[in-house]
Amino acid sequence: MAAADNLPMPSTEFLAPSRQDGEADMDDIVQLTRSIRLRSHGEASAAAAAGAADATTAVKAASPPPSRPKRKQPQGWEYEASIEATLRATERHPAERPSPDYLRDTQAGEEGITAASRAELVDAMTDFSRHYRLAPGTPHRAAAFVDRFLSARKLGAVAGGGDKLGILGGAAVLAAAKYEDRLLLHVIGARQAAELGECSRREVLAAERQLVAALGYRLGGPTAYTFVDHFTRHIVEGEEDEEAAAVWLLAHHLADMALLNYQCVKFLPSVVAASSVLLAGLVVGYPEMAAPVAGYTMEELSECVDAIYDVHASEPLPGFGRMMARWEATHGRYSLPPHYGG
């Protein structure tokens, strides 16, 4: 038996292509081959006569690489057009869209629900999700559930007594947490959700049943959180690119802040996400995220961008202070570019 036959075989993980880096980019290979100039027969003869020390001059140095090398195609890129089309079609489905002004339409005459009380509920659901370390997309999905329910049903129809908006929020977080990650059911259940709603376990479970029925059991639509991840998937490849990671983090933060503003309910989740990514790119100074973002022009995003500025206004919405304090404690202060404001 040959000696090579005794060598251990590499593991399947070693042989499998990396899911993060994808396959080698042909442009990188071409650039590498262009950096080497092969000697002609005459040059080879002259180099041999001049000696080994002179032979190294036959290889030219490559031209300096661009400051931002072209990124490799991730695995599955050939399916991205289909994924993109599915996400965009789903967010536009009438069953997934809340009424653009349900406070004036569906909730006309109802007590206990205003733009300010909605912002307080969003803040409470966000804080609750962080406290129990729920999946990061939970607050966005819970807020979407609340908006869609209140577009279809009166707040007074919520099961239970007391603070019906709080009960609805507890039911929405419970349903959203189950959808985002069922493995977390050992962490949060009806008892914890009842604490958010300041109600009984029985009341929050009854409200959850009402909620999912009013939503037509459609719980999986994309949110702004979904689209921020989707739009930044190619720029965030690892911690070595600090600017890309900063854009991703700040875009998610701005999308979270947009949840507080009732005026953002009328925008598609992809518009909120694209506006957040655009502003984050401007703040960080990341040119790859300049408009257009995800096919949206600046004109198409301007109204949503203005709404995000409104959240940062001199008279901030309820919940702004706590969200901003959490951000600044970890990442420091930021300033939105004033010439993009409304």
Summarize the structure.
This protein is mostly helical. Helices cover 52% and strands 0% of the residues.
SSE blueprint:
Elements: H1 12-15, H2 26-34, H3 41-50, H4 52-55, H5 80-92, H6 115-131, H7 138-152, H8 164-180, H9 190-197, H10 201-214, H11 224-231, H12 242-258, H13 269-284, H14 298-311, H15 320-331
Helix pairs in contact: 6-7, 6-8, 7-8, 8-9, 8-10, 9-10, 11-12, 11-13, 12-13, 13-14
Any overview of this molecule?
- By secondary structure, the protein is mainly alpha-helical.
- It has helices at 12-15, 26-34, 41-50, 52-55, 80-92, 115-131, 138-152, 164-180, 190-197, 201-214, 224-231, 242-258, 269-284, 298-311, 320-331.
- α11 packs antiparallel against α12, α12 (242-258) packs across α13 (269-284) and α13 (269-284) crosses α14 (298-311).
- The longest helix has 17 residues, at 115-131.
- The radius of gyration is 27 Å and the shape is globular.
- Residues 44-62 have a biased composition (Low complexity).
- Residues 222-340 form the Cyclin C-terminal domain.
- Belongs to the cyclin family.
List key phrases describing it.
single chain; 342 residues; mainly alpha; 15 helices; disordered N terminus
Largest sheet: none
N/C terminus separation = 77 Å
Flag low-confidence runs.
1-66
Spell out the helices and strands N to C.
HHHHHHHHHHHHHHH
| Helix content, binned percent | 40-55%
What is the gyration radius calculated from CA atoms?
Answer: 27 Å
Give the averaged pLDDT, no decimals: 79
Shape type: globular
Q: Briefly note the structural class of the backbone.
A: mainly alpha
The number of helices is: 15
Share of residues in strands: under 5%
- How many strand segments? 0
